[in-house]
Amino acid sequence: MTSELEPLDPGICLALLQDVPVGRIAWAGQDGTVTVLPVNFAMDGDALVFMTAPGAKLDAVRGGRPLTFEADDLEPALRTAWSVLLTGPAEVVTDPAETERLGALPLAPWARPAGARFVRLTPHKITGRRIPLHPGGVTSERVDPPDDPG
Questions:
Q1: Long-range contacts of 99-108 (CB under 8 A, 24+ apart)
Q2: Rounded distance between C-alpha atoms, residue 149 and residue 126, angstroms
């Protein structure tokens, strides 16, 4: 067993994203300040899709800021985890037919405020890593049923 982080190839990264409903979108503002906000998302092929209302995320997309998306999952008892990053340009989807098609994706936003729009992030870079399994946290104990006095 190794304690090294295991790099993940892009195909595995995209497959892992199918199993988590929430990740984080990040971008740098003009002043260098980085903003990170959670989003519900769905994968559409190799592209990531989320919905957002007018505000900071939509402004960043419309301003042409590259986005970074991060999602992860962990199992504390087994001391294992993975993390995936997608980086690339994003676009607000405006085509009505495409908007209708994206509406059929298994995307479950917690809120659908007025003016919400679909955003598509097309990754130019896909990276991921996994922390391999470590012994620890999990123990097992055999419990015999009580004797039946019967």
A1: 102/44, 102/49, 105/42, 105/44, 105/49, 106/42, 107/40, 107/41, 107/42, 107/49, 107/50, 107/51, 108/21, 108/40
A2: 62
Q: In sequence order, which residues have a C-beta less than 8 Å from that of residue 131 and are 6 or more positions away?
A: 5, 6, 79, 80, 81, 82
Q: Are strands 6-8 and 125-131 parallel, antiparallel or unpaired?
A: antiparallel
Under 8 Å between Cβ of 91 and 74: no
Q: For residue range 53-105, what is the model confidence (pLDDT) as tens digits?
A: 999 999 999 999 999 999 999 988 778 899 999 999 999 999 999 999 999 99
* pTM to 2 decimal places: 0.83
List of residues 6+ apart from 67 with CB closer than 8 A: 25, 26, 27, 60, 61, 87, 88, 89, 90, 121
CB 70 within 8 A of CB 45: no
In sequence order, what are the residues at sequence separation of 6 or more whose Cβ sits closer than 8 angstroms to the Cβ of residue 90? 60, 61, 66, 67, 119, 120, 121, 122
Query: What CA dihedral angle connects 139, 145, 147 and 149, to 10 degrees?
Result: 150
CB 140 within 8 A of CB 78: no
